[in-house]
Amino acid sequence: MRHTIQFDDKDDEGKALLAYLKTLDFVKIDEEGMPNWQKLELDKALDQHQNNTYNYSDWNTVKKELYAKYNVK
Fold first, then answer.
1. Whole-angstrom distance between the N-terminal and C-terminal Cα of the chain?
2. Residue 30: which of 10, 54, 3, 52 has the closest Cα?
3. Per the CB 3.0–4.6 Å rule, which of 2, 48, 61, 65 could disulfide with 54?
4. What is the percentage of the chain residues whose pLDDT exceeds 90?
5. Contact at 8 Å (CB) between 72 and 66?
6. Residue 7: its pLDDT value, please?
């Protein structure tokens, strides 16, 4: 089972808790917060946006495509 716990690790109590958790073999700490593949996709989209090369679709077009794809009337 996976659990997510949020706490402030900037004060002494938070630092102590984080240090303790790191000593436990069965605890895996993801300090990244976001998977690397997701960061790469966001960087790519941001780059395309900044260079005006991103292909945007308006909501009406997207809605029509989704309605057609899922046979919604």
1. 40
2. 3
3. 48
4. 66
5. yes
6. 87
Single pTM value for the model: 0.42
> Where do we find the tokens 């090369």?
53
Return the higher-pLDDT residue of 20 and 73.
20
Report the candidate in 35, 56, 34 with the shortest Cα–Cα distance to residue 45: 56
Instruction: Look at residues 20, 37, 38 and name the one whose alpha carbon lies nearest to residue 29.
Output: 20
DSSP element (H, E) containing 43:
helix 36-50
Distance CA 73, CA 66 (A): 10
